[in-house]
């Protein structure tokens, strides 16, 4: 299974997902044009998780939070890896040079 599969959370955490509701996936959309990022999905669910039993799972919930954090970081790294050519990081070198010259000019 890859990171973007919607069945990961129910399979890894059956106590947190007792009804097998799908978690975040790469294909999750709000409408036909707006995809939901993993950061948006987990942020929303962590803020509205009103079931108090989730807090009773303690270490399991902490592990789930850490897994969600790792997935978000992995997604961001994948984006940077695949979009590296489009980011034009070489143009940032000129900005860095200008800032370093400005720092050297100040007493």
Please provide a written account of the structure.
The protein is mainly α and 107 residues long. The chain is 60% helix and 0% strand.
Brief characterization of the structure:
The protein has helices at residues 8-12, 38-48, 53-56, 59-82, 84-87, 90-105.
**Total of DSSP H or I helical runs spanning 4+ residues:** 6
Please state roughly what percent of the residues sit in beta strands, choosing from under 5%, 5-15%, 15-25%, 25-35%, 35-45% or over 45%: under 5%
Return residue spans where pLDDT drops below 50 for at least 5 consecutive residues: none
Query: Taking all residues together, what is the mean pLDDT?
Result: 78
DSSP helix fraction: 55-70%
CA(first)-CA(last) distance = 57 Å
Shape: elongated
Largest sheet: none
Gyration radius, rounded:
20 Å
Number of strands: 0
Order of helices and strands: HHHHHH
Structural class: mainly alpha
* Structural domain count: 1
């Amino acid at each position: 299974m890859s990171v973007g599969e919607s069945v990961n959370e129910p399979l890894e955490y059956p106590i947190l997902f007792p009804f097998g509701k799908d978690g975040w996936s790469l294909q999750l959309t709000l409408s036909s044009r707006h995809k939901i990022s993993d950061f948006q999905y987990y942020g929303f669910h962590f803020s509205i998780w009103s079931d108090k039993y989730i807090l009773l799972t303690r270490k399991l919930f902490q592990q789930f939070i850490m897994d969600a954090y790792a997935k978000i970081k992995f997604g961001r790294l994948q984006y940077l890896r695949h979009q590296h050519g489009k980011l034009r990081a070489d143009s940032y070198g000129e900005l860095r040079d200008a800032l370093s010259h400005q720092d050297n000019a100040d007493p």
